[in-house]
Amino acid sequence: MHNVAAAHRVLDALAVVEDDPAVRVVLTCPVAVGGGGSDLLRHRGAPVIPWEQAEEERFDLVVSASARQLDRLSGPILLLPGVSTQGVFRGSSHHGDVTDIARAVGDGSEGHPWSVVALAHDRDRQALLKRWSGAVRHAVVAGDPGFDRLVASAPLRDRYRAHLGLPPDRAVVLLTSAYEPRSPVTRSPSAFQRLAAELSTTGYLVLIQIHPDAWDTRGSRYLRAWVAHIRRSDVILTKPTTDLRIPVVAADRVVGDHGLVTAYAVAAGKPVLLARPPATWLEAGSLTESLVKAAPTLDRAAPLQDQLDRARESRTAHAVVSRITSLPHHSAAVLRNACYRALNLPDSATPGVSTPIPVHRTADFP
Is 349 helix (H, G, I), strand (E, B) or coil? Predict the structure, then answer.
């Protein structure tokens, strides 16, 4: 598990098999990565082994959300690159590029026959086929377990609100930011601060969610100091180990950038406002393009409370869903089949079903 976001994708996949007593799960983090992934594993009470030990072991299945350093581990691989917001899958330094995937999974006779690259969308597989010959054998469209578990978690809204310390009778607006060059917290931190402060005057309780990669890169001390002047009873900053989807389910409204969490919010039927207008870098056919068409942009010159009150579920949320996943609500079945085949275990008669995201006793806010 290379970081918090990657760890959550791995935990999503493991959820389809870890309740089987015939399967023993151990987790590990590469040494040269941010500390967020290690923190998350400690909070979840999972059995963790050192990376050096993992390099010496032989596993029946290796599940990872990143191809980086994956060639150092032995065993068939289930690789989960995640959903691309900017276009079809290209590979990147964050998840490991196509060369890393080919090295980890192998081409032709070099790869383990049960190794799988599980992609969210048909378009991702077509793009990978153009760049890697091994995709013919190993790339499978599995849908997005992140979206499927988000949908399965909707009935737990009240439990999530209680877990986050949100009063049951308060309307909650989630302010969320990804962590990439064009995200609000990276591009204009002061503007993000001002927006958070302004939202806190609308009567809504403001739940601020900053991508866990920002906590690794900037440091928790910096980010806590960064929001200190707006930390009051109606502003809550979530912890970096909090599953990004729990605040989405808990919130009544969402204000976000063009990242995956905002897309998830639209797809889940939440009223969403985009924090800033679309930019010229918008790629035709991308998930971001669908998101921009589905959600209106916040007008900073108009009263914020009126805009929040008028925000409604998008009429084109289905278009966002169709760009997130080609197999909505079916990822658990595909991943379960891939895991049991690699583990050489007879699959039970119980079909793979996406389960709600669990909450844990560890507090999910600083």
Answer: coil
Q: Report which of 213, 234, 65 is spatially closest to residue 165, judged by C-alpha positions.
A: 234
If residue 116 lies in a helix (H) or strand (E), which one and from where to where? Answer: strand 116-119
Q: For 52-101, give the DSSP string.
A: HHHHH-B-S-EEES--TTGGGSBS-EEE-----SSSS---BTTTB-HHHH
Q: Are strands 235-237 and 139-141 parallel, antiparallel or unpaired?
A: unpaired
Instruction: Check: CB of residue 358 under 8 Å from CB of residue 14.
Output: no
Q: Are 119 and 128 in contact (CB under 8 A)?
A: yes
Sign (positive or negative) of CA dihedral 342, 123, 153, 81: positive
Rounded to 10 degrees, the C-alpha dihedral 329/287/238/67 comes to 80
> Measured between alpha carbons, how far is 178 from 300 in angstroms, rounded to an integer?
20
Whole-angstrom distance, CA of residue 268 vs CA of residue 155: 12
Q: Which residue has the tokens 């890393």?
A: 100
For the stretch 45-73, pLDDT in tens is 678 899 999 999 999 999 999 888 888 99
Report how far residue 31's alpha carbon sits from residue 51's, in angstroms, rounded to the nearest whole number: 7
Contact (Cβ atoms closer than 8 angstroms) between residue 266 and residue 320: yes
Residues 278 and 260 sit within 8 Å (Cβ to Cβ): no
What are the φ/ψ torsions at residue 72 (nearest 5 degrees)? -85, -10
Q: What is the DSSP letter of 312?
A: -
- 195-211 per-position pLDDT tens digit: 888 898 899 999 999 88
Could you give the count of Cα atoms lying within 13 Å of 145 in the half-sphere of its Cβ? 31
User: Tens digit of pLDDT for each residue in 305-341?
Assistant: 999 999 999 998 999 999 999 999 999 999 999 999 9
**How far is C-alpha 33 from the geometric centre of its chain's CA atoms?**
18
What does pTM read for this prediction?
Answer: 0.91
Q: Is residue 146 within 8 Å of 9, Cβ to Cβ?
A: yes
Q: Are 1 and 69 in contact (CB under 8 A)?
A: no
| Terminal CA-CA length for the chain | 23
User: The tokens of 83 are what?
Assistant: 């959903």
* Residue appearing with tokens 């890697």: 132
Please give the Cα distance from 366 to 223 (Å, whole number): 11
